[in-house]
Design goal:
The complex is a heterodimer of chains A (434) and B (165).
Chain A lengths: L8 H4 L4 E4 L4 E5 L1 H4 L1 H10 L6 E5 L8 E7 L2 E7 L5 E5 L14 E3 L2 E3 L6 E3 L4 E3 L23 E5 L2 E5 L7 H5 L2 H9 L6 E3 L4 E5 L3 H8 L5 H4 L1 H10 L9 E8 L2 E7 L15 H18 L1 H9 E7 L3 E5 L3 E10 L2 E11 L4 H14 L7 H16 L5 E3 L22 H15 L3
Antiparallel strand pairs in A: 1-2, 2-21, 3-12, 4-5, 4-7, 5-6, 8-9, 9-10, 11-12, 13-20, 14-20, 15-16, 16-17, 17-18, 18-19, 19-20
Helix pairs in contact in A: 9-10
Chain B lengths: L2 H21 L3 H5 L2 E9 L19 E4 H11 L12 E13 L5 E13 L2 E16 L2 E11 L15
Parallel strand pairs in B: 1-6
Antiparallel strand pairs in B: 1-2, 3-4, 4-5, 5-6
Classes of the chains: A alpha+beta (434), B alpha+beta (165).
Chain lengths: 434, 165
């Protein structure tokens, strides 16, 4: 259970929050989304001092595999070196700065700068300057000119995270109660995870925190996604008992999720009649395997609970029809780039892989039946902030007079507890003495 | 007339009428051009092998069979398809059409396209290639495959594919 400190007056009335326990109001100031100055401040105070997701171990199956990936405003080489070790380097030559890696991904034993030819091993060591004279023997005897590693790189359950702050607490502590939920994803299969080829990469003209809020917002489902709900009802005809149960959970340190028991089907491991008999047998076998390995309670949770999670401040992991990892790269206060990858068990059958891909596409992604409408809503919100003098956003749902805003006395999936947990943490970091 | 040239003209004529229905948002008429076993696909951006990837093995932007394509059309004609309410203005330009008779009686064609989408004073441009498989039908064709291969590394700045390419 996440411990919740009593509200201090300074938090109730800060630059960014207004909490009114008598009225059950929780307000966030819109400058947090719409001000370029606030954005610069939060880059300094929050984004560069947190743990940010970089990728999953299974994206680098072989020694030498690399991926160039942006994190916040930095471009990194995420690779598995020839010794099998995973690294995160800044993609810049130590000589004059050119990018040493120009392909988005591939397999390389060395990175050679195209400008003057400085050459680095996959482990980052400079081993050649493409010069027969001009450098002494001791020039790099302390490794000063090796590729620069990101200050911190740690993993949990195969998910690799980086931090640009050498003093950040260990990832284990940072993740708090979100850590075991990542572990649970790793338990979908003893064979581990496999990333599906292809990435959904798209821009949203809105503040990056809006996609974080949207990712675990249960409240918007019925209206924003009315046309998707119509589609689902058509597709699952014969499935009458659509019973949605769920709750929002605060996981500590600003992390939160919402969990939903909803019969949308999952390759791991909830069958839908429209998927056919072959899929039914395979999903039932998967379900039995989960029960035998993990026990009935955990197997039920893995098979039937959809979970959307935001790891503060901007890493998104959804565990639903597929495992979806979303990185959120803020480009400005009102612009972001989303990158999303889909993961499934490494030993999943072709039938279930196909079902996984189809389910993922039909809802998620910039060509799906739902995500384009989310993008539309976020851009409408940003526009509202930038074309009005209205100052406050409301995230009070589920917060009643006299209650603590981070305790959900009557848990419900479409309450806004998860957002309050986020903003509470965000406000703490923005208000701390620098 | 040279039969190859005639085939290209017939295919071009058909594709232009397909584009005209898209630009006019006459999506039900557009859907009627698709065969019962049709597939409508938009391959992932940033994938060098997008033209040949199987949608069962990769994260496509769209990979519809005829049933889901119909659902897509139904959705796009509703006000609750928010990203396209009110409908954006779209314009599809097709060119560089090449067509040949395939072994199985279908016509295989490729064309280049640029599609513009305008909404709230913002215009997004999409460009790439279409791969077509067309089944002869009466004097015309029915579409069995339309695969879009975008010449884009990412949907930046386009943001989404909320209309039909």
């Amino acid at each position: 259970m996440v411990t919740v400190a009593p509200l201090e007056p300074a938090i109730q009335q800060s630059r960014f929050l207004r909490i009114d326990p008598e009225r059950g109001r929780f307000l966030v100031h819109r400058s947090a989304y719409a001000s370029p100055e606030v954005y610069e401040e939060e880059k300094r105070r929050i984004l560069r001092r947190s743990w940010i997701i970089l990728g999953h171990d299974c994206e680098l199956p072989a020694k030498g595999d690399f991926i160039v990936r942006p994190v916040i405003d930095r471009e990194l080489i995420f690779n598995r070196d020839v010794n099998g070790r995973v690294n995160a380097f800044f993609n810049t030559c130590r000589h004059r700065g050119a990018a040493v890696c120009r392909e988005p991904r591939g397999n390389r034993k060395r990175f050679v700068c195209p400008y003057h030819g400085w050459a680095y091993r996959s482990s980052g060591e400079l081993f050649d300057q493409n010069a027969t004279f001009g450098y002494g023997e001791r020039f790099n005897d302390d490794g000063f000119y090796d590729l620069t590693k990101v200050p911190r790189l740690e993993q949990r359950a195969g998910f690799w995270f980086v931090s640009f702050d050498p003093t950040v607490p260990p990832l284990e502590d940072y993740l708090a109660e979100a850590g075991p939920l990542l572990d649970e994803i790793a338990e979908h299969s003893v064979a581990g995870l496999r990333v599906v080829r292809g990435c959904h990469e798209y821009e949203i003209k809105a503040n990056y925190k809006l996609i974080c809020e949207n990712s675990y917002d249960g409240y918007h489902l019925n209206l924003t996604h009315a046309s998707y709900v119509d589609y689902m009802k058509t597709m699952v005809k014969g499935l009458v008992n659509i019973d949605i149960r769920g709750r929002a959970r605060s996981l500590g340190n600003g992390h939160a999720c919402f969990e939903l028991r909803i019969p949308t089907g999952r390759p791991v491991a909830q069958w839908l009649p429209v998927w056919g008999e072959e899929a039914r047998m395979q999903i039932e076998a998967k379900r039995s395997e989960l029960e035998a390995r993990l026990g009935a309670e955990k197997a039920d949770r893995i098979a039937n609970v959809n979970r959307n999670m935001v790891l503060f401040p901007n890493s998104i992991i959804n565990d639903q029809q597929t495992i979806l990892m979303r990185t959120v790269t803020p480009m400005a206060h009102n612009r972001m780039i989303i990158r999303a990858w889909s993961f499934g068990p490494a030993d999943e059958s072709p039938v279930l892989r196909r079902i996984r891909n189809e389910c993922t596409l039909s809802f998620l992604g910039p060509g799906g039946f739902a995500t384009p409408d989310d993008v539309e809503m976020l851009e409408l919100c940003q526009r509202g902030y930038e074309t009005s003098d209205v100052e406050w956003n409301d995230i009070s749902k589920g917060y009643h007079a006299g209650e603590h805003p981070l305790r959900d006395e009557n848990p419900h999936f479409d309450n806004e507890l998860q957002m309050r947990a986020y903003w509470y943490r965000w406000n703490e970091l923005m208000s701390a003495a620098e | 007339m040279d039969p190859a040239l005639l085939l290209r003209l017939r295919v071009e004529d058909f594709l232009y009428s397909e584009a005209a229905l898209l630009d006019a948002w006459k999506l039900k008429d557009w859907l009627a051009l698709y065969a019962p076993d049709a597939r409508y696909e938009i391959a992932p951006t940033g994938e060098p092998e997008a033209a040949t990837l199987a949608s069962s093995e990769a994260l496509f932007l769209v990979a519809d069979d005829r049933e889901r394509l119909e659902q897509r059309v139904i959705r796009l004609l509703k006000p609750s398809a928010h990203a396209e309410y009110p409908h954006s203005r779209v314009r599809h330009l097709y060119s560089n059409v090449r067509a040949r008779n395939g072994a199985d009686g279908d016509v295989e064609a490729t064309s280049h396209f640029v599609a513009f989408r305008s909404k709230r004073s913002i215009t997004a441009t999409f460009m790439g290639q279409h791969l077509w498989r067309l089944a002869p039908h009466d004097d015309s064709f029915r579409i069995r495959l339309k695969r879009t291969v975008l010449d884009l590394d990412a949907l930046v700045p386009q943001g989404k594919v909320s209309f039909l390419l």
